[in-house]
Amino acid sequence: MNRIAISELTDGLHLEQAFRAADKQLRVNRQGGKYILMRLADRSGVIAGMLWNADEHIFECFDRGDYIFCRGRTQIHNGALQVIVSNIERMDPSEVDAADFERYDRAESDRLLEHLQKTIGGFKNVSLRQLGEAYLADAELMRRFQKSAAAVTNHHAYPGGLIRHTVDLMDLAALIGPRYPEIDTELLMMGAFLHDSGKIEELAGDGEIAYTDRGQLVGHIVIGVQMLGEKIAMLASQGHPVPEELRYQLEHLIVSHHGQLEFGSPKVPVTLEAVALHHLDNLDAKLASYVSVMESDVSVDGNWTNYSPSIGRKLWKK
User: Fold this and answer.
1) So what's the pLDDT on residue 1?
2) Residues near 129 by Cβ (< 8 Å), separated by ≥ 6?
3) Domain boundaries, the chain
4) The predicted structure's pLDDT at residue 159
5) Closest Cα to residue 176, out of 164, 166, 186?
6) What is the pLDDT of residues 182-234, one digit of tens each?
7) Domain 6-100 - what CATH class?
8) Residue ranges of the alpha helices (H) in the chain?
């Protein structure tokens, strides 16, 4: 049986094919029965999978990131397509074509990196340019930056999503900043570059996208501030100290970019650049998330998506 890409699945299909287990959870229903909730992935996307009447033995027979052979069928639940799995077998990587599951677009990521290098290299503020170039010169950091996702779900949740989100946000900052003379556009752009840098440590992306232990315990905001401190210390040791006030403003951009305390920001935005960064970040994330909802929708209504519980509405697709 030929493999069907997740993006091409429709309701009522019987499946016997490989997926990658992006995530798995063993849960208990109201009657006390156990089931496995999974996120099944290939290069075209991710879909929820449900295996009812499961137990610990089945749950432990495969790990996150493994290739698994699934038998089951597709069905629509609450407006979203899912796979009802009847049987799972762990597969050896040699049994699959890795190209069917590799979501990382190296050529696109390299293009974005080149754009990022030109943008930072064009900064007139010497301290900001030197700081940005210190990040860019860290080959291992940038390798991970290029391959990291920006989130586990919702927006830019794929390998390469972080650099896509970062570059788009910097371009938005470059466009919006000059409209407001009181804003330091290059400072805003550097905040866009740094705001999610801690995601490279918060998320694991080799074969799966999931939170690391450090990500769960510390989070990308704190990690991003720590990374900034390390680069500033390195520059100081090379005779290129970053002005103290500039450091504080950069730290504030990182710690306040979620906008509200209840959304995980230790501080609310109190500078114009921080206010702008929060709203531009939210705009880019929301639009990317909504586009994802529209692309994955299986509604038979040509004009509207199904109601999406995650965003609390239907979306107009025309």
Assistant:
1) 56
2) 120, 121, 123
3) 6-100, 106-293
4) 86
5) 186
6) 999 999 999 999 999 999 999 986 556 778 899 999 999 999 999 999 999 99
7) mainly beta
8) 56-59, 106-121, 126-136, 139-147, 161-176, 185-194, 199-202, 213-217, 220-237, 244-256, 272-296
